[in-house]
Amino acid sequence: MAHDYKNEAVEKFLLPHQPDEGNYTLRVAYETTHKAYRCDHTHVMEAHKQWKQHEQIEDVHHEAEAARVRAVADKEHREAAEWSKKCPHVEEAEEEADMPVEHCKQCIAKGTLSL
């Protein structure tokens, strides 16, 4: 699940406008404004960086959780398939009797009880 963090960040973290030197008559006024701009720009970029790291960590956690859920489901599916191979007579008896069979005689004799 790859995200386009760059485009998302453009919407979330608006950069301040860089002052235009031509709009200032005094050099000192421009330099003061430009210094404030650089400071604001740095803060916005730092916030963007932290947000991006947080989002990437969240993505990794979500992917790990999804993989864990898939692994559990796969394991349950494999176990059910193995169980049905071991005790096919139980499924047949359930279908014939239209009711669940707690323990079949063959499973009890083998020592494997059906679920």
Binned, the helix content reads over 70%
Unreliable runs: none
* Annotation field: number of helices: 4
How does the overall form come out from the CA principal axes?
Answer: rod-shaped
Structural class: mainly alpha
Strand content: under 5%
Determine the mean pLDDT. 81
Count of spatially separate domains: 1
Q: Give, in order, the helices and strands.
A: HHHH
- Main pleated sheet: none
Distance from N terminus to C terminus (CA atoms, Å) equals 38 Å
- Rg is 33 Å
Number of strands: 0
Keywords:
rod-shaped, mainly alpha, 115 residues, single chain
Q: In a nutshell, what does this entry contain?
A:
The protein is mostly helical and about 120 residues long. It contains 4 helices and no strands. The chain is about 75% helix and about 0% strand.
What would you say this structure looks like, in words?
The protein contains four helices and no strands. It is mostly helical and 115 residues long. The chain is rod-shaped and about 100 Å long.
